[in-house]
Amino acid sequence: MKIVTQRVACAEVKIDNKIHSQISNGLLILIGIEATDEKADADYLIQKTTGLRIFNDQHSKMNLTVNDVQGEILVVSQFTLHAKTKKGNRPSFIKAAKSESAIPLYNYFLMELNTHLLTEVKSGVFGADMKISLINDGPVTIIIDSKKKE
Question: Which residues of the chain have pLDDT under 50?
Fold first, then answer.
């Protein structure tokens, strides 16, 4: 499982030209689920995400978590995070999980993440054609892969 976490001033998801979800200060998380991913991968990413000290304290030092600043989180599924581009110019998504296994894991991620936050987790719609708008704050963008614990 891989996530791209962006500290944002605001973010929104539109589906069919209508706002589906939006947040102000917080994190936009793009999540890609691999065929081999399990709940333990989600648990690891939740722990890392909620513990990330990437919000500024009173001294403008990145020292606070999303809960410390009462920030919001918007989660959007994105299977293209597992694109392989080694051969040719057309990406391969062979490692991305099929819907049958990805949707339950995506829902588990949302549910468990919700239990670790002071605010309600917002989300896109799995598999939908979504338009994402955001104002990246910093910019701060962190990539975390549950298979490469660096």
Answer: none
